[in-house]
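Please study the protein below:
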Amino acid sequence: MTTTVERLETVRSRIAAATREAKREPGSVTLIAVSKTFDAEGIRPAIDAGQRVFGENRVQEAQAKWPALKAEFPDLQLRLIGPLQSNKAREAVALFDVIETVDRDKIAAELAKEMQKQGVKRKLYVQVNTGSEPQKAGIGPRDAAAFVLRCRQVHGLAIEGLMCIPPANENPGPHFALLEKLAREADVDHLSMGMSGDYEIAIGFGATSVRVGSAIFGAR
């Protein structure tokens, strides 16, 4: 039976190979280890193996395990990759280093207010609903560039990237290509796209970070 560390090394090797295949610079893709549903002891082997960037879907779940881990390992970076409710903005700004799911003006305003109040800067991404799925969070593709501009000009936020989750039953390639195109239109440099089943494809389309959970930690 493979261990978390063995699976992590496999993912790292595959990221490196996909990066070479895409003729990109070594180290240009950040691995986000998605640790949702796993407790601190389940996450620790990955930390001990040198993994430093982690993703969580829910603020409340992250609050239960990450403050102690971040105190123990100050160089950890924690990213929120799940939908953010405006009433959780204060906790999210306090705990997460990067918030990848900005998708409406209300959230943008709350984050701006909380960062000012707490005296911190957080890296922010806009989530784009590339498949225009009604059940999924994210700004519509046609509105993405204008929303990024509004975040900057109206809310004073420094948006550094875009994030997407393609529809589960579709070829992800066109969605990754669309996000890359929107990033150029919005003048952002970072693309968070690709998960356990398609991160190598995402790297070929320019992903600067990939979000990998089950391929590292095993089935939930």
Notes: Residues 17 and 135 are 35 Å apart (CA to CA).
